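Support request, please re-run this one:
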Amino acid sequence: MAARILQRLEEKYPVIQDVTFKKAEEGDDVLALVVGRGDIPKLLSFGGKILRMVGEETGKKIRVLEYGGDDRKFLEDLFAPLTIVTINTLWLPDGNRETKVILAGRPRSLPVDVKVLKELASKIRGITLRVEFERT
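Re-run finished. Output below.
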């Protein structure tokens, strides 16, 4: 669905033709668009009109994430506008692994529910997250 919407917008916003669209994942009221390296600024151009239009057509909040790259960059994009204080890997007794992310700020500063972001991280990157907020 997101790909069709972006194709329709290409005529009005030709910069979209230069964006490499990898995939889209949905989680509750959020649509995560995974795009090629360096393509995030292209989608954010025009004062955010492109993403606003996609959000209006889908009825979802939009997160734009970069394909590839390291986990830190992925998590920074996922939790924007909050700042990541630290990222740690937790090795559980059963052999599984969790990534613990500590964010600066308050939970209500995030425009998206933390549970949805954890679900998206699992779907897109296979990362199991434990999210905490820094005490101030």
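Strands lie at 21-27, 30-35, 61-66, 83-91, 97-104, 129-133. Residues 8 and 16 are 10 Å apart (CA to CA).
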